[in-house]
């Protein structure tokens, strides 16, 4: 079965659109007809089995079929820092590494490398290498097109890898951490960055898209040993609210140092909520506690904020449970795939289960 890639924005719930050079390949090289099946990926981790419905001069329409497609990606992301070889061996290395499952390849200019790359020709060379990566991804039924990074000096490559780890570790625990990874090209990364900023600032309104899962009580020794995990102490108190809204105040922090927030939420759909949050002074926080909902108790929990595989998990451990916990993750879109660390044992998704919402757990 032939495999093609298209952009995420060309996917709907039932249909996909293929544009670009693949249109000519489908129509005039493969001579495919409506009714034939293809495998289609968005290049970010989603595979769909599709059936061609219409062929146009500049696009191909395909119906998304309900059959599930196997996940062909490795459970971990692998970045290969590859010294520049001589002649055209880099093309062979890219092809085989993509087929083996590498996520990103960074060409490295080492002092003793035989191969050297003229700075003027670097961009053209990277475009060619990306084309080889895409071709190998199609051939091996990959769900993504592995990125080809900029050429780096050896010392810079080592420093860049270490800096990424330090930055993520430093920000882990912040309530609004977002990771814009390198799963797409630079232009798409900018679009994702702008979308995250717009959602946070409320343009057009601050939508929150999240999933919630019930997990077995985590291995605390393992969890607290992770460099990209931070513990935050939270006390959450619900206030009397208007119909259709949920208002709460929250104290969060650690080691005697706390910040305070007022949050108002309004449900838009099963996964989407409008969330408006503002920082409070300690005095404002104490004053608002006077408006606490008398039918609900304050919720105390330890939140373990974990960055894993360019995702940001919030693992909530409650004092009244010793066999389970809740993990939440905010998504950039409703179709994003969630990849869990192996040691987090999933019981089931509880996004739509009212019994596992904090507001329900707080009821007296």
Characterise the protein shown here.
By secondary structure, the chain is an alpha+beta fold. Helix content is 25%, strand content 33%. It has 8 helices and 18 strands. It has an 8-stranded antiparallel beta barrel. Helix 2 packs parallel to helix 3. The longest helix has 18 residues. The chain starts with a strand and ends with a helix.
List keywords for this structure.
364 residues; 5-stranded mixed β-sheet; globular; alpha+beta; 8-stranded antiparallel beta barrel
State the end-to-end distance: 57 Å
**Biggest beta sheet attributes:** 8 strands, antiparallel, barrel
Spell the H/E element sequence: EEHEEEEHEHEEHHEHEEEEHEEEEH
Query: Helical element count?
Result: 8
Strand order of the largest sheet: 10-14-13-12-11-15-16-17
Strand content: 25-35%
- The outline comes out as globular
What's the pLDDT, averaged over the residues? 84
Binned, the helix content reads: 10-25%
Oligomer description: single chain
What is the radius of gyration?
A: 24 Å
Number of strands: 18
- Uncertain segments are none
Précis, in short:
This protein is of the alpha+beta class. Helix content is 25%, strand content 33%.
Helix and strand topology:
Layout: E1 3-5, E2 15-18, H1 21-29, E3 37-41, E4 47-55, E5 60-64, E6 79-83, H2 89-100, E7 104-109, H3 122-139, E8 147-148, E9 152-153, H4 154-171, H5 186-201, E10 207-216, H6 220-225, E11 229-238, E12 245-254, E13 257-267, E14 272-280, H7 282-288, E15 299-308, E16 311-317, E17 324-330, E18 346-349, H8 358-361
Parallel strand pairs: 1-3, 6-7, 7-8, 7-9
Antiparallel strand pairs: 2-5, 3-4, 4-5, 10-14, 10-17, 10-18, 11-12, 11-15, 12-13, 13-14, 15-16, 16-17
Helix pairs in contact: 2-3
